[in-house]
């Protein structure tokens, strides 16, 4: 008897050594000369190949304005890989990969270039066996999205034939408010069906973020206390120590809240607060995430419970830093926020009355992203006041980056003859218990795109719900006041501290 | 840091571990498993190095059990345990204890190892050479969830496969099997690219290399078609050629690193198939600690059905009972 059609007889779910390897496919990158492409995408593709996760014949097509030949492109990828890849450079892997590299020169309104792209893809199907399966990675500013997807449609590049797929990969920002997000979705969905559109939120590709689900739903220890009966409040912080660098053009007018809270922080909130999904597939996950995002409510008094700031000149980690308004290319009267903090409530049985404080900012104390679930104080303490003076609230902190891990903070007796209880922490560090170098987020996400696994990609509904949460805040900010100034290298404006002090709480120093 | 202990006991070694950890200022430990390496002095160095490299991926407590041969009856009567405790810089990630056993205690190695196992963490035993005839029944092997042997490092690899099949217990595994994961992965990927039925296979590689037999057995077991084992000069595996209903599909690797994938009707493609070092193999072994059912099924397919084949033997038997594919694994589990 011989093997059946369709199912590959060499594949078996019980065979766990065989990696999840992508089927025959190729990746087309628009804006291939950009920073993201060189620093993240190309190295990620190489690392995947090096780990044996790409199919033989995998093809990488670059599309950009530069006047390059295939060889020039291959050289650029080669250099990018050598400089930025996570795994060691191996000649034989490079040889395998370089066979499928092509470059198409052109601009986005150049019909001829898209014809060339089409014939390049057809040629790769023949010469590399990519089987008509291509993902188009739009690593370009969002204003070009409509043009590129229209061109893809016009030249029949988005047409899927029976048994093959065409996918679109887009990067944030997914619009700058609900309306623009809906327009963008309409443009993309007109050409690609919703389930073939992959929105990259690289935070979701991080091991630590995926671990939130493992921590919550694979253990019995945490779930019973993961609710309003035990949790006092939750703080989600994403702090950067750098300024806007050379991204003035992109950043001004967008600001921290749109750049970070709308996507990364609300996704972290959703994963932290959602109910247990029925299964671990994309639909079940999105159902729970949209449910919880739909239950998020803004406080009534936005003046008292939201804060925005702008970094002023100061010293950051021993280096002198200029203020936002003095940065090159920034309007000195700009009202763009480089720091944003909001208080959110979730109206459901699990979380009613538990505030979620989200904050993000540039030029803060240090680069850190963490989720801190802060628990209520013990209702009664048999110890006298002096014994527990130094005891804080118990907290579970998920450190997303850097120094990935989980910390549990609780009280412990200080050795000695008197009774004195002080905070100590129990620490789990990824680097200590698991592989020294976990895969880069982009490796995981690119592989998932090629496999068609949409678990780690926010869906349209999530994006739109997030804008619904943020839009009123932005509208309020537009009409009232201006960003508070904070010295670079500190943890944000005093207004942010006052915002928590009003609730009788304070920010953690991460 | 290194602490040398002569004529010692497990409890003194445990004290030394705590002392070492305190000295380097990291009393908390996040090690995920205990890896016991049982070896002779000759292979200890290489094995230790491979295991420490693997510990970068799987932080572990590494116990290297070196059995020192006794040269006289007096030596044999004299039991002695020496230990070298390494923590921090000297131990990769985690902790290492090299245990040297002399005299009678050689036969009671488990009494030394048992107190040194990490609490509540899985135990893996690896015999780089001289694996016991029945690893699961071995006093050290019975402490472990996972028992790693290497049929490549034996006098008669093919005979070794027969023996391993006879005593297979869930949790047994063989580095000769880990070595072919990239091949298996590439062959599966090659078949992803065609929609044809495989009709026969030839596996070519150096003589006395059990990885070739294992790959052939795996293909025969999975595909249910005749698989022929051909001999070449190596290195290692050199080619797998599959005949399919739409022409040949083959992977050729003449130089041990870069292979060529040929599929009828498609141009040849280069694929990276590097031979991996022992550290990578051990790291792969430690990634999953549950029984490897695919290995069990492959081993139980039987090396003899392969060699008698040349065609009908394997294919005929297999073809008669396609539904019985899972049977060998189940039988193994029931043992």
Automatic annotation (TrEMBL), chain A:
<feature type="binding site">
    <location>
        <position position="202"/>
    </location>
    <ligand>
        <name>substrate</name>
    </ligand>
</feature>
<keyword id="KW-0313">Glucose metabolism</keyword>
<dbReference type="GO" id="GO:0009051">
    <property type="term" value="P:pentose-phosphate shunt, oxidative branch"/>
</dbReference>
<feature type="domain" description="Glucose-6-phosphate dehydrogenase C-terminal">
    <location>
        <begin position="213"/>
        <end position="508"/>
    </location>
</feature>
<comment type="pathway">
    <text>Carbohydrate degradation; pentose phosphate pathway; D-ribulose 5-phosphate from D-glucose 6-phosphate (oxidative stage): step 1/3.</text>
</comment>
<keyword id="KW-0521">NADP</keyword>
<dbReference type="Pfam" id="PF02781">
    <property type="entry name" value="G6PD_C"/>
</dbReference>
<dbReference type="InterPro" id="IPR022675">
    <property type="entry name" value="G6P_DH_C"/>
</dbReference>
<dbReference type="InterPro" id="IPR036291">
    <property type="entry name" value="NAD(P)-bd_dom_sf"/>
</dbReference>
<keyword id="KW-0119">Carbohydrate metabolism</keyword>
<feature type="binding site">
    <location>
        <position position="172"/>
    </location>
    <ligand>
        <name>NADP(+)</name>
    </ligand>
</feature>
<feature type="binding site">
    <location>
        <position position="259"/>
    </location>
    <ligand>
        <name>substrate</name>
    </ligand>
</feature>
<dbReference type="GO" id="GO:0004345">
    <property type="term" value="F:glucose-6-phosphate dehydrogenase activity"/>
</dbReference>
<keyword id="KW-0560">Oxidoreductase</keyword>
<dbReference type="InterPro" id="IPR022674">
    <property type="entry name" value="G6P_DH_NAD-bd"/>
</dbReference>
<feature type="binding site">
    <location>
        <position position="240"/>
    </location>
    <ligand>
        <name>substrate</name>
    </ligand>
</feature>
<comment type="similarity">
    <text>Belongs to the glucose-6-phosphate dehydrogenase family.</text>
</comment>
<feature type="domain" description="Glucose-6-phosphate dehydrogenase NAD-binding">
    <location>
        <begin position="28"/>
        <end position="211"/>
    </location>
</feature>
<feature type="binding site">
    <location>
        <position position="206"/>
    </location>
    <ligand>
        <name>substrate</name>
    </ligand>
</feature>
<dbReference type="GO" id="GO:0006006">
    <property type="term" value="P:glucose metabolic process"/>
</dbReference>
<feature type="binding site">
    <location>
        <position position="362"/>
    </location>
    <ligand>
        <name>substrate</name>
    </ligand>
</feature>
<dbReference type="Pfam" id="PF00479">
    <property type="entry name" value="G6PD_N"/>
</dbReference>
UniProtKB/TrEMBL annotation, chain B:
<dbReference type="Pfam" id="PF10128">
    <property type="entry name" value="OpcA_G6PD_assem"/>
</dbReference>
<feature type="domain" description="Glucose-6-phosphate dehydrogenase assembly protein OpcA C-terminal">
    <location>
        <begin position="170"/>
        <end position="299"/>
    </location>
</feature>
<dbReference type="InterPro" id="IPR046802">
    <property type="entry name" value="OpcA_G6PD_C"/>
</dbReference>
<feature type="region of interest" description="Disordered">
    <location>
        <begin position="306"/>
        <end position="335"/>
    </location>
</feature>
<dbReference type="InterPro" id="IPR004555">
    <property type="entry name" value="G6PDH_assembly_OpcA"/>
</dbReference>
<protein>
    <submittedName>
        <fullName>Glucose-6-phosphate dehydrogenase assembly protein OpcA</fullName>
    </submittedName>
</protein>
<dbReference type="Pfam" id="PF20171">
    <property type="entry name" value="OpcA_G6PD_C"/>
</dbReference>
<feature type="domain" description="Glucose-6-phosphate dehydrogenase assembly protein OpcA N-terminal">
    <location>
        <begin position="51"/>
        <end position="165"/>
    </location>
</feature>
<dbReference type="InterPro" id="IPR046801">
    <property type="entry name" value="OpcA_G6PD_N"/>
</dbReference>
